[in-house]
Specification:
Keywords: Membrane, Transmembrane, Transmembrane helix. This protein has ten helices and three strands.
């Protein structure tokens, strides 16, 4: 029951209440002239989200395969959207948790690079943001799923570690609480992508900017991710991208009004050619090279 309440709070009530508070704040502010809608930002952000999602998912599958490849008796094969293995070893179940751990570490590394490096390229900053976003928000829901599904990747690792039901629920609650915290922590670097103070001067303007930089790109990017994941069961093709994309995006849009001291330091994006070519190249690698399977034995 506690886990169900937490799910409702994180997925529905939390962002809804936060958003209502932002709407009330925006209603009390003096209206300002709206900036032109930046469709180039939307398109580039969507392409970079697509790249980040698929690269993080590849990192997850790769680090599910590598520990098994180093374990005697296991013969793993890596695919573009999955992996499998032959043979038996007691550690195989434990290694089902290494993928989620790898995505967390990859996400934290990208966010550390974003924070510490003096990056002028708007596209590089957006890419690192999306890598951090996907790295963390791809792993955290698996902690929740693992607590209720012993057959999931993280669930198998939990069972190997002999976690009690209470311990599993604690992990699930910790992951649930972490999801909105991650999303809200990424608001400042997102708002700092603005090119003008007017883009984020008011609560309404900040919300509008986050819709352009985050929510619409997630909507478009989720659709663009599907060709990278087929063929596979429809639930696997669609469910994971929806979960990864929309939980964080909903909290970011709902909480955009709250960050009032972000300083715009973005630059104008003139072209989406490079992100588009990169996405096409990755799609070809996934479908032509990885789809048949790469044996790690």
């Amino acid at each position: 029951m506690l886990l169900l309440v937490a799910l409702v709070l994180v997925l529905i009530l939390g962002p809804l209440l936060f958003g209502v508070a932002g709407w009330r704040r925006a209603r009390d502010e003096a209206p300002v002239a709206r900036r032109p809608w930046n469709w180039t930002l939307v398109a580039v952000s969507a392409l970079l989200y697509t790249l980040a999602f698929n690269l993080i998912f590849f990192v997850q599958e790769l680090f599910l395969v590598l520990p098994k490849a180093l374990t005697p008796g296991l013969r793993p094969t890596l695919f573009h959207n999955n992996h499998r293995w032959e043979g038996q070893h007691a550690l195989a179940s434990l290694f089902q948790g290494t993928g989620a751990l790898a995505t967390i570490l990859a996400g934290l590394l990208c966010l550390a690079l974003l924070r510490r490096a003096n990056l002028r390229s708007m596209q590089v900053r957006l890419f690192l943001l999306w890598m951090g976003y996907c790295g963390l928000l791809m792993a955290l829901p698996q902690g929740v799923i693992g607590a209720v599904s012993a057959g999931s990747d993280v669930g198998m690792a939990m069972d190997y570690l002999h976690l009690s039901v209470a311990a599993k629920h604690f992990v699930a609650l910790l992951c649930l609480v972490s999801m909105p915290l991650v999303a809200l922590a990424l608001l400042r670097p997102v708002l700092e992508l603005a090119t003008s103070a007017d883009d984020i001067a008011t609560a309404a303007a900040r919300t509008r900017f986050v819709v352009q930089a985050v929510m619409l790109p997630v909507l478009i990017g989720t659709a663009l991710v599907i060709p990278f994941r087929v063929p596979r069961e429809a639930l696997e093709v669609v469910f994971l991208p929806v979960v990864v994309g929309f939980i964080g995006a909903a909290w970011m849009v709902a909480g955009a009004w709250y960050v009032r001291d972000a300083r715009p330091s973005g630059s104008w994006i003139e072209s989406l050619v490079l992100p588009l070519l990169a996405a096409i190249a990755l799609l070809l690698v996934f479908q032509l090279l990885l789809r048949p399977g790469v044996a790690f034995y």
